[in-house]
Amino acid sequence: xxxxxxxxxxxxxxxxxxxxxxxxxxxxxxxxxxxxxxxxxxxxxxxxxxxxxxxxxxxxxxxxxxxxxxxxxxxxxxxxxxxxxxxxxxxxxxxxxxxxxxxxxxxxxxxxxxxxxxxxxxxxxxxxxxxxxxxxxxxxxxxxxxxxxxxxxxxxxxxxxxxxxxxxxxxxxxxxxxxxxxxxxxxxxxxxxxxxxxxxxxxxxxxxxxxxxxxxxxxxxxxxxxxxxxxxxxxxxxxxxxxxxxxxxxxxxxxxxxxxxxxxxxxxxxxxxxxxxxxxxxxxxxxxxxxxxxxxxxxxxxxxxxxxxxxxxxxxxxxxxxxxxxxxxxxxxxxxxxxxxxxxxxxxxxxxxxxxxxxxxxxxxxxxxxxxxxxxxxxxxxxxxxxxxxxxxxxxxxxxxxxxxxxxxxxxxxxxxxxxxxxxxxxxxxxxxxxxxxxxxxxxxxxxxxxxxxxxxxxxxxxxxxxxxxxxxxxxxxxxxxxxxxxxxxxxxxxxxxxxxxxxxxxxxxxxxxxxx
Length: 517
Known about the structure:
Elements: H1 13-27, H2 30-36, H3 38-47, H4 49-64, H5 68-74, E1 76-78, E2 81-83, H6 86-114, H7 116-136, H8 140-168, H9 171-199, H10 206-213, H11 215-225, H12 233-238, H13 242-252, H14 259-275, H15 290-306, H16 315-322, H17 326-353, H18 356-378, H19 387-404, H20 406-417, H21 423-449, H22 460-478, H23 487-495
Antiparallel strand pairs: 1-2
Helix pairs in contact: 1-14, 3-8, 4-6, 4-8, 4-9, 6-7, 6-8, 6-21, 7-8, 7-10, 7-11, 8-9, 8-20, 8-21, 9-10, 9-17, 9-20, 13-14, 15-20, 15-21, 15-22, 16-17, 17-19, 18-19, 18-20, 18-22, 19-20
């Protein structure tokens, strides 16, 4: 068994185990991996429930702006109708992403000190407490406090989920389990739309209190299982707890898996990164070769925002301002996310067959084209009555294309491009930068679509289409192909500064590898 040490690894059994682990990583098919690691799949999905909670909260807030009872209780009268001012829409919507910036950056510290399991547990308990503020809020000021504090904790989940998924599964399952994070985002948004559509007709405070209260449902699901979650074996190895790492691997895999071989591969990758002088602080995420890896992780995550995904949080409101009746806008919002949910599941087949780089770049190109078409339709003189439905339908198609490509593949790239020793911190940095861009969008979008402000409607397509073009140029030159590579191989490819467009065909041979790849 490989152990963490300052001395060179011994030859013999350890080398044989390492060679076996490397070869198995390459030979393992998807379904073989599922049979060998069914518990890893289950626990990874369980931990990702936190992401559903993260996505649910801003979605219900965005929908409440179009909810008659919420408008009446929290808004003001304008031309015979109650509205929430653009300033307060912005303020409430900012609470969550501002909290995410701080929460994501802070989460890396407890993740490294206390592990993935207990950090997750603490965040769930804090969420349960903070929902009380939202539930009993009867003023915009109190609700804003609830959103801000809630965002601090919810921001941790988007770091914990992908980090845990990328550390408990073999290479064959890495794409599915890390992209599952996107399915959790869509699930949270879809549930938020469905629940607010169901409660919107209520003519009392329960119209918006019920959606807030249902956040406790996830807490009740998570708490009973939290004590049985296996800790990340990668974190345990870095802490020198190799016996605990072996025990965790046993809980994550079937009896047919060679635990010693898997542990040897983890220890060897950790040793290699130590040799490369890879530290584990925030400063190390931008030092040496890690700067490039952090740039890629941050770039793909930020592209989600710049391509237009934040319109989803205002989906119902956008459809309403585009000209659809209120109830039709709610139903369109549900259909919008239902398409996204199905497409995320379909994306798993694309991820298994095609490379990360191709899926990201082709998908982003489609999103750009659709955005420009929406903008052109909105520019038709006189704006015919059918334009509202045409724009809404194109947004449905846009969302489907997003969840087939840029949405899920981003989380795969996040897990694969970050070095193992700074993975949680790299994902935290990427999340924080993405959230900062999200804050900018959260400020801008209400003013862009609010009828008392810019009232851009579908012309937003020009804005997001233009930003998408800039992202595509960056992606073509910077995103490498990481499919089919072990973490050790990726370390070597980045260390050798292989250009992004040469990653796919590059043959890795080196003294640090114990098998011929």
